Amino acid sequence: MASLTESLQNITMSGGGAYSLATRGAEDVINAATPIVLEALDSINIPENQDLFTFSDMGTADGGTSLKMVGNLIHAIQEKNPGISFNIVYSDQPKNDFNGLVQTVLGLGHFPSYLETTENVYPLFSANSFYKQIIPDNTLDFGFSATAMHWLSGKPCELSNHVHMVGADGEEYLRFSEHGKKDWETILLHRAHELRKGGQLVLLNFCRDEKGKYLGNTTGVNMFSNFVKIWQDFLGQGRSSEDEYKRMTLPQYYNTVEEFSAPLKNFDSPVYQAGLRLKHIETRITPCPFAEAFKDHQDAQRFAEEYIPTIRSWNESIFFGALDQNRALEDKEKILKDYYHSYQDQVLVSPETHRMDYVHAFTVIEKI
């Protein structure tokens, strides 16, 4: 992300507001965490004469999933400090769809904006990722990020027999693990610079929970294993090459609770030395909204047509970038169309076995 990820594949979410429309579960995660956000907010000492409150939403994509939560935070503060102004800093890596983000935040997209019911609120937009410092030292009151920090600053290696670190082993897994550890430390150190004393972070990150569950692997079909199976089928059919298959590796890492906590608890850690302290961490599973809706409507076609776009919204750019540059654009588009169609056909056959439940670590951090 930012300059560190320019050499990576094109990591982009679906644009034009389509990401938030397709990933309703990501908004469900944020809405479920709103009480935690407000509780963390209550612990911040906001003097009556403080005239500006700065909030950052890091890895925001098109901004739609966090709109309600940000509005709730603003209203909660204004009830106690009616005259206070707000800087709402939205940040994402340079390839993000910032036109879509601006339209969403200004209420010109698919969703109503908190700007319609608030005053003295100033949205700001930054093409810096969380792998760099986004705002000046000691100016951030509250930092927030949801379903974003699993994206690594670089790809540690290509995986031989899988597309994601959850299926890696041996040396390949260790390389992802070490990279994930360093990236998490980098993210936290930049936030330590930005936060003022008493400032809070609420970070909602994909994880592997205490039972080994993770995104798309809570029950039924393992989503990532299915990604592999379909690409292997394409490889066997001659639709893709060995090199393309290896390049399908997603540059992501899902930390465990222990891995998230370690730099915040170790006295010798640079993160601990910088003043960050772990206040709270817990894992939660947020049900796949499309699978839950299917239980009621029992329309397999509808479920498949709703479910596949939410998968496609966050991995299509990686898979597209893995295909050989010498392929014609039409050929690449046809391969991806057929790939997601193959997945959709499986959902149609056994819809009750498919779901993408979200597995997150809800983390609250304070700077002392």
**Could you tell me how far the N terminus lies from the C terminus, measured between alpha carbons in angstroms?**
28 Å
Total count of domains:
1
In what range is the share of β-strand residues? 15-25%
- Number of strand segments: 7
Percentage of helical residues? 40-55%
Q: Which structural class do the helices and strands define?
A: alpha/beta
As a whole number of angstroms, the C-alpha radius of gyration is 21 Å
Order of helices and strands: HHEHEHEEHEHHHHEHHHE
Provide the CATH topology.
Rossmann fold
Q: What's the CATH H-level homologous superfamily? A: Vaccinia Virus protein VP39
List keywords for this structure.
368 residues; alpha/beta; Rossmann fold; seven-stranded mixed sheet; 12 helices; globular; disordered N terminus
What would you say this structure looks like, in words?
This protein is 43% helix and 16% strand. The chain is globular, with a radius of gyration of 21 Å. It is α/β, with parallel strands linked by helices. It has a 7-stranded mixed sheet, with helices on both faces. The chain has a single domain (2-367), classed as Vaccinia Virus protein VP39 (Rossmann fold, 3-Layer(aba) Sandwich), CATH 3.40.50. The model is unreliable at 1-9 and 13-18 (pLDDT under 50).
